[in-house]
Amino acid sequence: MKAEIFKAYDIRGLYPEEIDEKGIYQTASALCDFLEPKTLVVGCDVRLSSPSLKKAAIAAITAKGVKVVDVGEISTDMLYFAVANYGYDGGLTITASHNPKEYNGAKIVRENSKPISGDSGLFEIRDLALQTEVSDQDLEREINPELVEKKDIASDYITKVKSFADFSQIKPLKILANPNFGVGGRMIDRLLSETDIEISKLNWEADGNFPKGRPDPLIPENRQEISDLIAQGDFDLGVAWDADADRCFFFTEKGQFIEGYFITALLAKIFLEKSEKKNEKILRDTRLSWAIDEITAQNGGRAVSNKAGHSFIKERMRQDDILFGGEMSAHYYFRDYFYCDCGLIPFVMILEYLSKQNQPFSEIAQEFFWNKYFVSGEINNEVADPKETVKKIREIYESKATAVDEQDGISLDFIDSQDTKNSWRFNVRPSNTEPVIRLNVEAHNQKLMEEKRDELLKLIQG
After folding, report:
1. Is position 273 within any domain?
2. What phi-psi label fits residue 152: left (phi over 0), alpha (psi between -120 and 50 degrees) or beta?
3. Pair 88, 140 in one domain
């Protein structure tokens, strides 16, 4: 096992070159030493290597005398549900999320589904794991059945998801849904089983080979198939998930993709309209901001910003008891879901919302977002020295900025109080895991956004 597979938020590497059964055994054993738990939840995604890796994790945990609750094949957000809802001491799921089929890894949480990241113990677990000796006999040793409880959590999980929407209000919408050969299809079937929704299924059956490539709808080319099919058909909306089903992506009835940034703003509006309390907080990352800030303010809430990354977001959600949070990557976080992210809750909330509207999804997106906020999308560029590149950009632009945010890379706003059409902003930040600069630009007109985007890219690319 290579130390480099321990990333900022999780564990990921090529199987079996970088991560294998011995490595997972070491990691699970180290997790027991780190948490000193009585009971841990263990699950896995649909990847071909996941069952054998999960078995190794269970072997390691039970060898420590710790009880395992085996929840089987799950979405990542089902791990969060299982640990927090039933009050277990922590858990892990074998998954490489949206990475290609050759990868695998793990996501780990402690009690109440608090994330374990590089800032909160993951690197300590790494160091303990690398010191742990594992033999072939350890992997082959019979697992004590008295220390393993198999638990089907699907029904309770679906009940929790349904609590976020009034299903009596949901109309018989027509949907094209794409779980990208992950675990999501099975859960969506259960979720919609008692509704009149007409669902057309794309890439539905779980297949760890991911026959159409990397299961990540955030990549534009991976959205083309569903977008084209929606445009050719008769649907009210489209929706897609990544392979571990903790991120949710939406399309209009015309097949237009709606950025996670705008879905965060729309979900904030829905939550605040339902809330009986004033000044509820809505959390966003720093990459794009105006739509969320303005819609939150219009609906009596307070927008707060935070560094991107699920562990940072969840920590802030708990710290400030925040109602709802979102990232432009399509992770959405909920106070009433243990301050964690979930891929099905946004789905049911949007279903209820659209059922109550007299406009199609495309008109709603146009009215609220597309005619006001013009965004570049996140643009990644490899550079020799990401931190030095950020420093150079800062030196050029900061003196003219009307607002500066240093929480995550640097965000600079340039507000023209005389004519908002001339206002723009950008965020540049180094990747946590690779020599890459991530750029996002936002403006109140398309031409200005494109002009500033190209200006910044020229600087970044040297």
Report:
1. yes
2. beta
3. yes
**CA distances (Å), origin 7, targets 126, 334, 411, 431:** 10, 24, 24, 11
Report residue 14: phi and psi, to 5°: -70, 135
Per residue in 157-215, pLDDT tens? 999 999 999 999 999 999 999 999 999 999 999 999 999 999 999 999 999 999 999 99
Per-residue pLDDT of 93-129, as tens digits, reads 999 999 999 999 999 999 999 999 888 999 999 999 9
- What is the CB neighbour count within 10 angstroms for residue 292? 28
- Helix (H) or strand (E) holding 308, with range, is none
Catalytic (active-site) positions: 97
Where among 125, 153, 181 does a domain terminate? 153
320/281 same-domain check: yes
pLDDT tier at 48, thresholds 50, 70, 90: very high
Distance of alpha carbon 177 from alpha carbon 204, whole angstroms: 8
Give the residue from 47, 21, 9 showing the smallest Cα distance to 243.
47
326 domain residue, yes or no: yes
One domain for residues 108 and 137: yes
Residue 416 lies in a domain: yes
Number of domains in the chain: 4
Residue 8 belongs to a domain: yes
C-alpha to C-alpha distance for 95 and 54, rounded to whole angstroms: 10
Final residue before a domain boundary, out of 229, 258, 287: 258
According to the model, what pLDDT value does residue 462 have?
A: 81
Whether residue 302 is predicted with pLDDT greater than 90 in this model: the reply is yes
Q: What is the C-alpha separation between 126 and 151, in angstroms, rounded? A: 28
The pLDDT assigned to 234 comes to 97
Same domain, 86 and 217: no
Cα 191 → chain centroid: 20
> What is the domain extent for residue 335?
260-341
* CATH number of the CATH domain containing 142: 3.40.120.10
Q: pLDDT at position 433, please?
A: 66
Sheet of 340-341: strand order equals 302-306, 281-285, 324-326, 332-334, 340-341
184 Cβ neighbours under 8 A, 6+ residues apart: 75, 241, 245, 343, 344
Judge if the upstream peptide bond of residue 220 is cis by omega within 30 degrees of 0.
Answer: no
Instruction: Report residue 337 as tokens.
Output: 């879901």
Q: Which residues contact 370 (CB under 8 A, 6 or more apart)?
A: none
